[in-house]
Amino acid sequence: MKRVTGLGGIFLKATDPQALGAWYRKHLGLDVNAWGGAVLRWADDQPGGSTTWSLVGQDSDQFAPSAAPFMVNFRVADLHGLLAALRREGCQVLEKVHESDYGKFGWVLDPEGNKVELWEPPPGR
């Protein structure tokens, strides 16, 4: 019997859902619908795409400087280009960029202080 087969969604509490949705629409390109969410479908041109679910210990600082007990990771096509655009748009982009065999990682804080991880996978992934 199959149990979990993928990530069905990520849900965030927000002080002002409409304003936060508008920020995600403007700066990260999410198609936020009137019901308050977006459906992200895997495209046929992204073979081998995957979604990761992971647990971290209570003492982890992985989500810092955010105080939230979660972090969202979005796949992006051009990390450095997006980070530059977010800086021009006045977003709070964290300076650190991590590059490894797993791809390129960068981070931005949304207006409510939630840390958002942006991931450009390596070619062919």
From TrEMBL:
CDD domains: VOC (cd06587)
SUPFAM superfamilies hit by this protein: Glyoxalase/Bleomycin resistance protein/Dihydroxybiphenyl dioxygenase
Gene3D superfamilies: 2,3-Dihydroxybiphenyl 1,2-Dioxygenase, domain 1
Domain VOC: start-end pairs: 6-121
Coiled coil: none
Protein's recorded name: VOC family protein
